[in-house]
Amino acid sequence: MHTYLFVDGLDLVARSDSRMAGLAPGRLLRPGGPLHPKDMPGVVEVAAQEWPESGPDRLTIRVLLRGGTVVWSGLTYPGLDGGVIEEVRFRLEQYLGEVERAYAALREHP
């Protein structure tokens, strides 16, 4: 099972590197896990090379809590307009709600 990370309707992992697949949701979404923001920026592995076979390549993002905003940086994927998306921001309350919702759904349907 893989985690799919969508930002503005775009699959961040597939658009960043089509060889990658998101890491296990239980690993990424668990309470206090790597996607939970902290005041100090953290580098989070979100995907690993899967195609054509498993490999050493990893997709990482930086996650930082800045006031009431969660910032993902270190991104390099094409947006809908073809421009490169390097950083995205989320409202903290909405972000945590979505991570918690996804984790709860995972636990209901393992």
Radius of gyration: 14 Å
- Order of H and E elements: EEHEHEEEEH
Strands ordered across the widest β-sheet: 3-4-5-6-7
How many DSSP E strands? 7
C-alpha termini separation: 9 Å
Number of helices: 3
Quick one: overall form?
globular
Task: Give the overall pLDDT as a whole number.
Answer: 92
The portion of residues forming beta strands comes to 35-45%
Helix coverage percent: 10-25%
Category by helix and strand content = alpha+beta
Q: Which stretches of 5+ consecutive residues score pLDDT under 50?
A: none
Main pleated-sheet profile: 5 strands, antiparallel
Describe the structure.
- Strand 4 (42-49) and strand 5 form a beta hairpin.
- The protein has a five-stranded antiparallel sheet.
- 25% of the residues lie in helices and 38% in strands.
- The mean pLDDT is 92.
- The longest helix has 17 residues, at 92-108.
- The protein is α+β, with helices and mostly antiparallel strands.
Question: Keywords, please?
Answer:
single chain, 110 residues, alpha+beta, 5-stranded antiparallel β-sheet, two-stranded antiparallel sheet, 7 strands
